[in-house]
Amino acid sequence: MATIQTENYFNSIFKSNNALKNWLILLFFSLGLIGILHHEMWRDELQSWLIAKDSSSIIDLFNNLRYEAHPALWHSCLYLITRFTHNPLAMQIFHLLLATSVIYVFIEFSPFTRFQKILFTFGYFPFYEYSIISRSYSLGILLIFIFCALYPTRNRNYFPLSVILALLANTHAYGLIFALFLAMTLVLDGFLAQDIRTLFKTKKWQTLVSLAIVCLGILMGIFQIIPLDDADFKSDVIRLEDWAAFPLLNNRLFATILTIWRSYIPIPNFFQYQFWNTNILINGDSIARICAISITIIILLYSAALFIRKPIVLFLYLCGTCGFLVFSYTKFIGSLRHHGNLFFLFLACVWISSFYIKSDLLIEKLKSSQKILTRLNLVDRYKNVYLSGILFAHVIAGLLAVYLDFNYTFSGSKEVANYIDQQGLKDYVLVGSRDYAAAPVAGFLNRQIYYLESDKLGSFIVWRNRKLPKQREVLDRVERLIKQNNKALLILNYKLKVKRNELNISFLFKSSQSIVPDETYYLYLIQKKPVNN
User: Fold this and answer.
1) In 3D, which of 268, 329, 342, 359 has the Cα closest to residue 303?
2) What is the pLDDT of residues 472-528, one digit of tens each?
3) pLDDT tens for residues 514-526?
4) Fewer CB near the last or first residue (10 Å), C or N of the chain?
């Protein structure tokens, strides 16, 4: 009852002052700007930037993306930006503009209540994960929301929707899955809707061209995400051995199912410093995990019940959710930024369902159809309470995440780069071991680092045939390297515990503890000892 009264209050405010929409968007952008100025980018953010910056042409860009398993749309946008500036802040500003566009489209065109729009604006994914952290996911969400806003135009022309789906398929692997099932939904809708079948007859070639655009976009996306044989990607962020505390849940299936919980209720474990990619229940004891699984089942059943009287949307929700889960189970479990796409699938289904009238086609022939209808009416009655409750959990997670990111160091890479620059050490030979951790420093310094894994200078990481050297091997390689140079700066994300008699090893700097677990840095000055005659 309190939630309904709150929604009515915000509805009256919006009706009395439409300018509040603009103020809400401006507030989001302003807080986001403060957030990105205090956010230390981590390796995945700067990897995309470095690839775009150091590609000499579009052809070179695609060549550099062969080991990324990411489609090129996000990197192509960054490539254009890097033709004007090499300051990675430009990427953050561009990403914030995309995130603000997501909020604008959602507020202006979605069928959600005004109270729910406010909650969504400051939820975990739009306010933090897909806003402060610059990745390709915000671009994908923007395209999904534009698709939903334009969905009613399918009765007149498929072309705009086909272009959006083709672009969506080239944002990331999850955007590709989204595009595939949204396209299948359009096809199903076309077979069932009389007016769309008429459209196909009257505008046959236009419809075929639209279908060709979607297929081409999806095929391009698939071609780009297939890893090469010699690629060596890192393991899943969620490590299955962490489930050993409770043997019943110690398998990939349960870990995959709980990606739904992480997506719908993304409240991290804020009781630990490195909160990112954690979850308040999943990272707790075994009883908490059982609760998470139980609530996950309830979420799935209730969400499916919302769409059961709109069969086309039910098809999209069930097939899309299964598609995401199959990908997680068979290919990559991923982390919270990946799981968030499951929640946005749900939002897209709620949005699209507003364009359909209710149909009892799936339940009218059942013996207990009347009882089912009564219960479904009850589900519909509490729909807004259900949505608002989930979005409120997102707000809690979003505000706390932004607060912690603002007050603590997300990645120590910027601190290390600033130290090297301020101490006049930038011209020394920079050496990095565990290249994936050292690469962000190259991004902030705008110069190359000698990576011991690949045994050559570079900026972005090429995920191919890499073997991380042990500490003694690190010093062996550094010693060979400085035969041609008097001094070298060694960048590590661990404390050096071995020594060599032939080398003077001086500890220079340690960064602040980072929220990203393996981006706390140690900086060493290494030089050859003078030879005694």
Assistant:
1) 342
2) 888 888 888 887 667 889 999 999 988 888 888 899 999 999 999 999 999 999 888
3) 999 999 999 999 8
4) C
Question: What backbone torsions phi and psi does residue 349 show, to the nearest 5 degrees?
Answer: -65, -40
Contacts of 115 (CB under 8 A, 6+ apart): 6, 7, 9, 10, 11, 388
Strands 429-432 and 449-451: parallel
Classify 424 as helix, strand or coil. coil
CA distance linking residue 223 with residue 113, whole number of Å: 40
> What's the residue count for the chain?
533
C-alpha span between 78 and 72 (Å, rounded): 10
The answer for residues whose C-beta is within 8 angstroms of residue 269's C-beta and 6 or more apart is 275, 278, 279, 280, 283, 284
Per the listing, tokens 């299955």 go with 240
Answer yes or no: are the C-beta atoms of 515 and 500 closer than 8 Å. no
**Region label for 334, one of left (φ > 0), alpha (ψ between -120 and 50) or beta (otherwise):** left
pTM for the structure as a whole: 0.90
Cα distances from 33 to residues 94, 133, 402, 415, in angstroms, run 11, 12, 12, 20
Are β-strands 449-451 and 456-458 bridged in parallel, bridged antiparallel, or unpaired?
Answer: antiparallel
- Give phi and psi for 506, each to the nearest 5: -115, 125
Structure-token pair, residue 418: 């600033």
Query: Under a CB-based contact definition with an 8 Å cutoff, are residues 331 and 381 in contact?
Result: no
- Name the burial class of residue 188, with classes exposed (0-12), middle (13-18) and buried (19+) by CB atoms within 10 angstroms of its CB: middle
Kind plus residue range of the DSSP H or E element containing 487:
strand 487-492
Calpha distance 237→461 (Å, rounded): 18
Whether residue 437 has pLDDT greater than 90: no
* Token pair listed for 307: 């769409």
**What pLDDT does residue 377 have?**
73
Three-state DSSP state, 448: coil
**3-state class (DSSP) for residue 386:** helix
Side chain identity, residue 234: K
Cα–Cα nearest to 314, from 145, 175, 188, 155: 188
- Check: CB of residue 248 under 8 Å from CB of residue 481: no
Sign of CA dihedral 160, 166, 171, 173: positive
The answer to whether the CB of 261 falls within 8 A of the CB of 246 is no
- The two tokens of residue 94 are 């561009």
- 3-class state of residue 504 by DSSP: strand
Residues 205 and 479: their CA atoms lie apart, in Å, by: 67
Task: Kindly list the strands in the beta sheet with 503-510, ordered across the sheet, starting from the edge strand earlier in the chain.
Answer: 456-458, 449-451, 429-432, 487-492, 522-528, 503-510
CA-only gyration radius of the chain, Å: 26
Burial profile 236-265: b = 16 or more Cβ within 10 angstroms, e = fewer: bebeeeebeeeeebeeeebbbbbbbbbbbb
Could you give the 3-state DSSP secondary structure of residue 392? helix
